[in-house]
Amino acid sequence: MPDSVLLRLGTRGSLLARTQSQQVADALMAATPGVRVELVILKTTGDQVQDRPLAALGGKGLFTKELEQALLDGRVDFAVHSYKDVPVTMPLVDVSALEIIAVPPREDARDVLIGREPGMTIDRLPPSAKVGTGSLRRACQLLERRPDLQILGLRGNIDTRLRKLADGEYDAIVLAAAGLKRAGFFHAAAMTPLDAEQFVPSPGQGALAIQCRRSDVPTVGFLRPLHDVKTAECVNLERQIVLGLNGDCHSPIGAHAVQTAGEVTLRLAVGADGGGLPVRRSTVRGPISQADPLVRAAIAALA
Predict the structure, then answer these.
(1) What radius of gyration, in Å, describes the C-alpha atoms of the chain?
(2) Number of domains in the chain
(3) How far apart are CA 141 and CA 151, in angstroms?
(4) If you placed Cys at 241, which of 135, 155, 174, 255 could pair as Cys (CB 3.0 to 4.6 Å)?
(5) Which positions are catalytic?
(6) Is there a domain that residue 233 lies in?
């Protein structure tokens, strides 16, 4: 290997995207002496258009589209995505020449409720409270617990969403714990993590996906050491649920897999179209080696 290899890492420009990309860059440089990583900031459609719901614009793929195009064009060597933003169906780019090479160990997969009062819980929210979220999955699970809540749309980066809460536009908002923790915004005394067994996270939530060109053999080799097999297996199960349900970015699907000693527990929570009630649930357990039967069993058990 040459004395030094420079890899260009494509990332969105938000604080969270830059922070988690830098964390991956640091891990890569620590694992492979002689590799240097340069962050290349790219603007995505999902970041630029903030006044409309993602579903109306084309879905979460708008957060990965420009990064994948930059990979295909050779402008960057690899990209870091929040795995829950990577489309399971209907990708906006032909990704046949690309591959998710590494999935690092998962951060906290839970959602977090943040109220204007510290330590707010769903049950303690005032009657008809205004709760902000851009997620149909979160909306239906909130309404299942509290049908009186007013669910209002919420877009923007983490700091923007927290500012809207502080400005009084909402009584509470729901964000991903992983993003809050990676960006340094999580405060245990003021924020309430929601039990993943009851408030089932989005498929892939808390995980990162490191993507590059299949043909770029040297970069593939550099990235492989960052891969965590257990995390990848669990996220794959969750994404297979979306495929099995013919889901897309409009679908209020919660799927969360936890693996212990070769056994996996897979929980589903699936709302009605549009993020409404009822919410159907199921939980199955079995060997991780039996992934396909587990997925079929979880879907069949929805009730």
Answers:
(1) 19
(2) 3
(3) 11
(4) 255
(5) 85
(6) no
Give the C-alpha separation, 204 to 271, whole Å.
18
pLDDT in tens, 110-158: 999 999 999 899 999 999 999 999 999 999 999 999 999 999 999 899 9
Taking CA atoms, 181 is separated from 91, 108, 136, 187, 222, in Å, by 28, 8, 23, 9, 26
285 and 162 together in one domain:
no
Q: Distance between the two ends of the chain, CA-based, in angstroms? A: 56
Average pLDDT over residues 183-189: 95
CATH number at residue 289: 3.30.160.40
Asked if residue 160 is part of any domain, the answer here is yes
**Same domain for 76 and 160?**
no
Closest CA to 208 of 107, 136, 98, 302: 107
Q: CA-CA distance, 224 to 99, in Å (whole number)?
A: 12
Say if residue 118 is in the same domain as residue 182: yes
Entry pTM: 0.92
DSSP states of 55-103:
HHHT-GGGGTHHHHHHHHHTS-SEEEEEGGGS-SSS-SS--TTEEEEE-
Enclosing domain of residue 296: 238-300
Residue 88 maps to which CATH number? 3.40.190.10
Tens digit of pLDDT for each residue in 54-83? 454 555 677 899 999 999 999 999 999 999
Same domain, 15 and 88: yes
Strand order in the sheet with 78-82: 35-42, 5-12, 78-82, 208-213, 98-102
What is the average pLDDT across 199-203? Answer: 98
Kindly state the tokens that stand for 62: 């708008």
Q: Is 274 exposed, middle or buried (0-12, 13-18, 19+ CB in 10 A)?
A: exposed
Q: Provide, rounded to the nearest whole percent, the portion of the chain with pLDDT above 70.
A: 93
Are 37 and 186 within one domain?
no
Same domain, yes or no: 46 and 93: yes
In a domain, 202, yes or no: no
Instruction: Tell me, yes or no, whether 223 lies in a domain.
Output: yes
User: What pLDDT is stored for residue 52 in this prediction?
Assistant: 52
